[in-house]
Amino acid sequence: MENRLTSNRGRFRGAGQKQWQKLGKAFDADDFTDVQAAAAISRLTGGNFRLLQRLFNQIDRILHINELREITDDVIQAAASTLVIGAAN
Q1: Is 13 exposed, middle or buried (0-12, 13-18, 19+ CB in 10 A)?
Q2: Is the distance from CB of 20 to CB of 71 less than 8 angstroms?
């Protein structure tokens, strides 16, 4: 079970970095802001690739509308607030 979970996290990181690059941004593992933003994205999406894609679409929209250059925790929270996230009953 642990190996599968670790493997999924690795694939998720790769997918997240690809989405990051699609926005024309370079993820820097040594930059606290980037690491904090990546952690927030990981917490919000829980490894759900479809949700990751939807979240990054909103991140792109917020960056563009507000003329921002960096993906920050605040940008992610604003993007997440526009999405319906949760389990259906």
Answers
A1: middle
A2: yes
Write down the pTM of the prediction. 0.77
Domain span including residue 70? 2-81
Closest by alpha carbon to 23, among 1, 53, 45?
Answer: 53
Evaluate whether residue 88 is within a structural domain. Answer: no
CATH number of the domain that residue 6 is part of: 1.10.8
Residues of the chain with pLDDT under 50: 1-9, 88-89
Summarised one tens digit per residue, pLDDT across range 71-85 is 999 999 999 998 876
Q: Which pair of structure tokens corresponds to residue 20? A: 């990051």
The count of domains in the chain is 1
